Amino acid sequence: MAIVNVEKTSRIYRQDSVAVKALDDVSVAIEAGEFTTLVGPSGSGKTTLLNQIGALDEPTSGRIQIDGQEITGLNRRKRTALRLWKIGFVFQEYNLIGVLSAQENVEYVLMLRGMPFRERREKARQILAEVGLEGMEGRLPNELSGGQQQRVAVARAIVSQPAIVLADEPTANLDSKTGAALLDMMRRMNDEHGVTFVFSTHDPMVMERARRVVHLKDGRIEREEHRS
Predict the structure, then answer these.
(1) CB 160 within 8 A of CB 148
(2) pLDDT per position as a tens digit, 182-221
(3) Order of strands, sheet of 69-70, starting from the edge strand that comes earlier in the sequence
(4) Which helix (H) or strand (E) holds 189?
(5) Distance separating alpha carbons of residues 139 and 146, to the nearest angstrom
(6) DSSP class of residue 142?
(7) What is the arithmetic mean of pLDDT over 106-114?
């Protein structure tokens, strides 16, 4: 079953009165359980495509469906609700809330969903243990290393069991050893729990671990690679 359906989407920006086509008639489907990465040089359109799948940006033309729901043309309130209930995000800057502990950061999405305190606390503890942060639940982000912060971000993204997790350059601020460990952890979650991941990246380590690599150039899909 396709979690994401992108159909003939284009995105045109205005830059100094000049029309710049960031995406040009792109179509792609992401199936449940995929571990896919979007790759390409700067300006290829990979981040724009990821942002459109994440309902952070609107296509100029075309259609996008997430988990069977048409998202093109949704108003701001409905797009916010879609992101809350359907999509997990992992960013290169971590985007943790500095005044909240690791556990409170992970709980935050569950709180927004209205989950009772005890239930969300238990879920947060379980997922933090699974990403290797047992015993660090009470630490603030500035008391954690970059790799540990990114593990908190991954835990927050998957704790609510979203339809899809989108990761934009998740290893960009990590050294190679830490980045490899983080990617291996996400690949394990994909293997063991069927979490659907889509990455946007320049990192060869991400490409090596992906089961599907979608190459973009000049706003179009140039080719794809499928791996076992």
Answers:
(1) no
(2) 999 999 999 998 999 999 998 999 999 999 999 999 999 9
(3) 18-31, 2-15, 61-66, 69-70
(4) helix 176-193
(5) 13
(6) G
(7) 96
What distance in Å separates the CA atoms of residue 160 and residue 168, rounded to the nearest whole number? 19
Parallel, antiparallel, or unpaired for β 197-201 and 220-226?
unpaired
- CB 164, CB 4: distance < 8 Å: yes
Taking only the tens place, the pLDDT of each residue in 130-187 is 999 999 999 999 999 999 999 999 999 999 999 999 999 999 888 999 999 999 999 9
- Integer angstrom CA distances of residue 120 from 131, 138, 186, 201: 17, 15, 22, 31
pLDDT band, residue 92 (cuts 50/70/90): confident
Length of the chain: 228
Supply 109's token pair.
Answer: 């999405």
pLDDT exceeding 70 applies to what percent of the chain? 100
d(CA 134, CA 111): 21
First-last CA distance in the chain: 18
Q: Which domains does the chain have, with CATH numbers?
A: 34-51+81-226 (3.40.50.300)
What is the rounded distance in angstroms from the CA atom of residue 23 to the CA atom of residue 218? Answer: 8
Q: How far apart are CA 41 and CA 37, in angstroms?
A: 13
What does the alpha-carbon distance between residue 69 and residue 66 come to, in Å, rounded to a whole number?
5
CA distances from 86 to 69, 130, 158 (A): 10, 21, 10
Residue 228 has pLDDT above 80, yes or no: no
The residues, ordered by sequence, that sit 6+ positions from 56 with a Cβ below 8 Å of its Cβ are 83
